[in-house]
Task: structure prediction
Amino acid sequence: MPAALTLQILNQEEADESHPDFGHCCDRRRRYGNSRGIATPAYTQGKPDLVVLIAVDQFSAALFDQWRARFKFGLKRFMDEGIVYSSAYQSHGLTETCAGHSTMLTGKHPRGTGIVANEWFDTRSGDPVYCVEALAFSSASNPKRHVGPTNLLATTLGDWMKDQQPMSRVVAVSGKDRASITMAGHRGDGVFWYEDNFGFTTYLATGEDAAAKLAPLAELNAKIKAETASPPPWTYSEESCRALEADYQFGARTWHSKLPPENPSGASIRPVHLIDPYTMEAARILVDHFQLGRRGVIDLLAVSLSATDFVGHGYGTQGPEMCDHLYRLDAQIGAFLTYLDGLGPRVLVVMTGDHGGSDFVERLALRGFANARRIDSKALLTAVNDELKSKFALAANPLVTPDFTQFYAVDDKKRALGEPLRTKVIEAALAILNARPEVEEAFSLKELLSHKVKRSAQSDYSLRDRYSLSVVDGRSGDIIVAFKSGIATGPAVPTGFLMGHSGPYRTDTAVPIVFWWQGMKGQTRILPVDTTMIAPTLANIIDVKPPADLDGACFDLGFPAAPNCMR
Result:
């Protein structure tokens, strides 16, 4: 049976056996354990045997809070049994998957991890750079694709563990390569991600054998290949979500928001409803294969669930697509927690998001956000370049951008302009951009690199603060642009994704952080905490010494037997 139809709500008290994701509970219970039939370990002393990070891609604090009353399974357990930080956040301004994931287990902002965005330009070569591009490694599923941890300039919790406790194992799995690679760090024992038309793959160093490294997930990959050859349609698991169906206008085109979903551009639909279930199944297989938490040392598992991001970008955050997805997400996390209950080792789980996300602007405008609108960002770039070319008598466009946030001053070969022309072009471009009505503020890389962020600012960071925490000399653009809140960049009529990243505003920076372990009582804390605090807090609990130059500080969870954080 396809994975989307066999999600397990493994013996939860609230489980509704009529829920389509409940199926085959008894067979799975025998395999993975039963939270009522097996006594779960209680924390009275000692450290956890297994630390688990669950990152939910594009899981904003707003979305988490909006749905809290409707969660029944895993996310309800987090609320009832975990420590919920409701005012948590990502500190940086360029809020994308790669940058956000890089903060979770390094204890550093992107300016320290080196992962400034999903993509940037190398103005020495004139080439674009993918954030986990790494010539020293190749993908096991595509030898011509080179990805690995090379661009990550910081070490991770897993790296610290392996330095000080060499027998520890570090495993990561995700729907995206840039999520699993940045969470695992430089010394992961197994780093896997999902690829369409293949299944789960990994990266290889020179001389490594692809079949051997993929062996733990070979059986799952065969199942995925068979199931996705003719994937089941994404239909409603929660009938109440059907009430959110509606029509929206994009230029002359009408799009109907519903399940099964339609791509607004009419393109084929990716089976996003299968990716999280496959990722969770892969996580369970990897726990068993690597015997995580069951060898007398502390191990680390990092799981990033990507489908919330795919749904948010593709269909928005307030329609039937996200409604049904969140019910499924809740069920999948519930199944995984019950699996951990029956595992035997003591487990500590932390859940957070790499960034948040805004709904698409057409629906925002209908709901009263007057400033919500699309701009033709290519036309804007052309207008700015034309003005700069006229001013400086240039033949080639002097600005290029991978994301309409970072802008690079380049010559006709897309290499850095020479001085003094480079400085003059940057100054003129800043003046043009800051005069545009769509732009909130544009900054030079030079001023952001020299800006000092006060630690006391916490979640009240200014735009300058946030972008200062995002930039790295030699990677970031010469100009960083914050568009006004509610402005969506891209084509005037969307051709693919309905919404990108809203950037430095609370819709994208605010995320939940939840800590959970067996036997604890739930509480909500309103303290503003940063995702860079996760790694030093976990390091304190498992008695691993982090580097001295972290941006994030440890905070006290009241974990049994854990020392108070040194301040």
Q: What stands out?
A: The CA atoms of residues 285 and 425 lie 54 Å apart. The mean pLDDT is 90. The two ends are 52 Å apart (CA to CA). The longest strand covers residues 50-56.
